[in-house]
């Protein structure tokens, strides 16, 4: 009896034995929230910072994985912006989806790291950009010292204040009278 009901329900032209899958829309969940049933990547299932055999990633593995995810994101970003006005709507949507997915993977990876892994990653990020100390070394200055400089307001010069403006300012310093008149008066003075 069940077999005949199945066949009668599925007799929609595509073959009787085909199964139709229904995928629930994933939506935009914040990283680490999991799905409605409590499965998926959530706080209790923190697999992003684990290796394939289930062990926690070492510091070097975290750095390598982060570099890999960052490189993938940079590639997708480059493709998205290079082809932004060159492809049709469908391809642009695919490029945009890849771009935002790669960014999401990178952010989720950082968010799911253990504190000691995050600390190692932050240390690596900041070590990558060494401060430029050429000026300090050439002048025998200690970059760790903070120089205290006091400047009075009258010592600060406006770089946009021209010499002709300075001269006019000095020449008409005593003039406190408001200008009056119409636009026609101005034109008469100018001879126009």
Distance between the termini: 104 Å
- The count of helical stretches stands at 7
The counted number of beta strands is 0
Could you estimate the helical fraction of the residues in percent?
A: 40-55%
Main sheet? Answer: none
C-alpha geometry: elongated
Q: Could you name the ranges where pLDDT drops below 50 across 5 or more consecutive residues?
A: 1-15, 30-45
Whole-number mean pLDDT = 76
- Beta-strand residue percentage: under 5%
Classify the oligomer.
single chain
Radius of gyration: 34 Å
What would your notes on this structure say?
The protein has 192 residues and is mainly α. It has a domain at 57-139. It is 47% helix and 0% strand. The protein is built from 7 helices and no strands. The protein has helices at residues 2-9, 59-82, 89-111, 115-127, 134-138, 163-171, 183-190.
């Amino acid at each position: 009896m069940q077999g005949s009901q199945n066949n009668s329900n599925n007799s929609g032209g595509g073959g009787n034995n085909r199964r139709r899958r229904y995928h629930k829309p994933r939506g935009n969940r914040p990283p680490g929230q999991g799905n409605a049933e409590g499965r998926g990547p959530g706080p209790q299932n923190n697999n992003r910072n684990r290796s394939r055999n289930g062990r926690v990633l070492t510091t070097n593995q975290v750095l390598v994985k982060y570099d890999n995810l960052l490189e993938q994101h940079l590639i997708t970003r480059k493709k998205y912006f290079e082809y932004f006005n060159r492809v049709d709507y469908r391809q642009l949507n695919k490029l945009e989806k890849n771009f935002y997915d790669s960014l999401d993977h990178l952010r989720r990876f950082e968010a799911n790291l253990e504190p000691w892994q995050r600390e190692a990653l932050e240390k690596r990020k900041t070590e990558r950009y060494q401060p430029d100390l050429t000026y300090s070394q050439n002048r025998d200055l200690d970059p760790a010292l903070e120089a205290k400089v006091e400047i009075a307001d009258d010592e600060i010069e406006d770089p946009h204040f021209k010499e002709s403006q300075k001269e006019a300012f000095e020449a008409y310093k005593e003039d406190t009278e408001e200008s009056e008149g119409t636009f026609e008066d101005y034109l008469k003075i100018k001879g126009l």
